[in-house]
Amino acid sequence: MSMITRLRLPIYAALALALAAGACHPSGGQRYQRKQAQESLKKLEAPGVTIGEFHLTKVTDGDTIRVDGLESSLRLVGLDAEETFKNDHDRRAAETDFKAYLAANRAESKHPVKAASPLGEMAKEYAKEFFKGHTKVRLERDDAREIRDRYERYLAYVFVEKDGTWLNYNVECVRAGMSPYFMKYGYSRRFHADFVAAEAEAKAARRGIWDPALPHYPDYDERLVWWMARAEFINRYQPQIDADPSFIVLTHWDAMRRIEERVGQEVSILATVGDIRLGDRGPTRVALSRKMFGDFPLIFFDKDVFASTGLTQWRGEFVVVKGVVTVYQNKHTRKKQLQIQIDRPGQIVLSPVPGLTRPDVTNVTDNAAGL
Description:
Strand order of the largest sheet: 1-2-3-5-4
Largest sheet: 5 strands, mixed, barrel
Radius of gyration: 22 Å
Mean pLDDT: 87
CATH class of the largest domain: Mainly Beta
Structural class: alpha+beta
């Protein structure tokens, strides 16, 4: 019997007990009236740090839950638990040769990737046990302006009251070794020190992903270097983000309104690089990621300028762009679009990415870019 198979036995035993106890649906499958659901959605959409109290309806995995009134999942801030198995093919491959299975999943990717693992199953069981018997949870945000992620999932910390104390599940999950402190999209603004201390405690005790005897991702050192580089880049601009209304984080709920208010003016935008469409007969378009089917375009009429920026290597990575907001109107559909035209490489500052080298022409400082 392989090590992974042996580890799976207690996992599935716990799963059977959890299902028998109804832990998968702490609310007992209770359905909520439309009015209650609408009230829940109002709380989730309202800006502010405190969202409110909700009924927990499902634990999806170690870093995702569902609450009443919400069909999609909540994405829990500061967590990145390993994935649970979604099919027998992956499960069998992991059982046969876990190292080869992980290598095949990563393939030629320049960065570590997500893959289902036994630790992902353990993280899900930990979450079920943590929330067992607690149908009421309190949701809070890290930043009042960060409401949803690119995939329309609400971002939140989830608290549970135990013995008269409200515990932050996000931090406790890291303390249990079920997830590293996930700062790929920035440090926690409210609980950074708590996450750092919880991760240090988990490492020292060799819990979960920090236990070398358990089958988990072997590349957490690589992940953390990459995530921290991204977080440091964001942190460098945080004072400007907080103080300058023309410095806009594209994922903030009011980003597009603030950009629209500044048509004809210069703004700075912090975002990740999304889809790139090379123009054979027209301009090249680079989408800055905001949400699915709602990204913000950068327009390049000069192909040499585009090539000089190095953006093709920075897909998925953070950049800061500075430029004047303009409006383009399609002559056929008459549809209007906000955009920024890039005329020189210095308008773009690339975040540092381990393993990637910036083109010499754009290896500029923030001062050179005028940021």
